[in-house]
């Protein structure tokens, strides 16, 4: 960027930002946020920098680049895939279209996990279906004494998770390839967590918004949406130490069904937590 006033054909940061907001707001309900994230990505600066340097001019190459990214966003592509990054918990994660985009409501699952993990204890945690590694890395970053094992059956997703762990220098987590519990053999854990696919296969939401671009296998497990959670609950007690916890994220209307599955498969002290929107979102049960 240049410090000079804008010349012919050049815009200041604030002028370009307002133009991007206007264009994206026509197709996105989060036009301002989308615009700020895309422009910050192109200018390689924090969003706060754009406010403090609003009168600087933007180089023509950067202006051309922001128009390319705008076109992708107007076509519906998620901002996180366009920029290749997403903030989750206290971490800045890198990601691509091989993994689910971490949602703010999934931070509730991390909160529940930390509540049942004693701060100083050398606990063992298993995350099933880790994707970008968001949950495993958030727990590992908050509990340095804990050993986190995370599994996923998608090789591209595991590559993303491993890269995030390396870049963030979080060393108390290991990633294993395979379906659900298969990679951990007879290992036992103090806590098992998962944000599994839980959208019913015929849910119209799958063909709207960001979901159109995300890996289908990470979104829907089958007809009812409960298939993956049932698989996880069915084998939880095989892999939990006595007194250990299972905690899963689920759909807003699935709380009662998940509690029933947990009870059916031998878990007790079952409780469900609501997200900030007041929807039942995370259920935990104890072995």
Concise summary:
This protein is α/β, with parallel strands linked by helices and 287 residues long. The protein is built from 10 helices and 9 strands. It has helices at residues 13-25, 31-43, 47-52, 60-74, 79-83, 107-116, 134-142, 155-168, 227-239, 255-264, and strands spanning 85-88, 91-94, 124-128, 147-152, 173-177, 189-194, 240-249, 268-274, 280-286.
Using the coordinates above, name the CATH class of the largest domain.
Alpha Beta
CATH architecture of the largest domain: 3-Layer(aba) Sandwich
Task: Return Rg in Å.
Answer: 21 Å
Number of domains: 2
Q: Oligomeric status of the shown chains? A: single chain
H and E string: HHHHHEEHEHEHEEHEHEE
Secondary structure tally: strands: 9
CATH topology category name of the largest domain = Rossmann fold
The helix count comes to 10
| Biggest β-sheet strands, sense, barrel | 7 strands, mixed
In order across it, which strands form the biggest sheet? 5-4-3-6-7-9-8
Low-confidence stretches: 1-8
End-to-end distance: 58 Å
The proportion of residues in beta strands is 15-25%
Quick one: CATH superfamily of the largest domain?
A: Vaccinia Virus protein VP39
Mean pLDDT: 93
Structural class: alpha/beta
Helix content: 25-40%
């Amino acid at each position: 960027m240049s410090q000079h006033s804008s010349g012919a054909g050049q815009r200041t940061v604030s002028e370009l930002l307002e133009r991007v907001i206007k264009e994206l707001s026509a197709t996105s309900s989060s036009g301002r946020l989308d615009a700020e994230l895309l422009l910050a990505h192109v200018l390689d600066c924090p969003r706060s920098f754009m406010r403090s340097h609003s009168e600087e001019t933007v180089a023509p190459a950067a202006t051309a680049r922001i128009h390319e990214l705008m076109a992708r966003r107007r076509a519906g592509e998620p901002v996180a895939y366009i920029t290749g990054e997403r903030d989750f918990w206290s971490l800045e994660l890198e990601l691509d279209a091989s993994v689910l985009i971490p949602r703010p409501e999934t931070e509730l699952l991390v909160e529940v996990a930390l509540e049942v993990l004693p701060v100083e204890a050398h606990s063992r945690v298993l995350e099933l279906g880790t994707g970008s590694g968001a949950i495993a890395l958030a727990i590992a970053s908050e509990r340095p004494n804990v050993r986190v094992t995370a599994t996923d059956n998608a090789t591209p997703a595991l590559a993303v998770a491993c890269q995030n762990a390396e870049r963030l220098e979080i060393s108390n987590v290991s990633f294993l390839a395979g379906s659900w519990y298969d990679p951990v053999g007879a290992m036992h854990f103090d806590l098992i967590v998962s944000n599994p696919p839980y959208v019913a296969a015929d849910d119209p939401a799958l063909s709207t918004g960001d979901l159109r671009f995300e890996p289908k296998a990470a979104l829907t497990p089958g007809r009812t949406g409960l298939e993956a959670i049932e698989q996880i609950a069915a084998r939880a007690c095989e892999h939990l130490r006595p007194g250990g916890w299972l905690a899963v994220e689920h759909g807003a209307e699935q709380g009662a069904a998940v509690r029933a599955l947990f009870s059916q498969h031998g878990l007790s002290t079952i409780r469900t937590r609501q997200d900030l929107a007041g929807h039942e979102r995370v259920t935990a049960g104890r072995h």
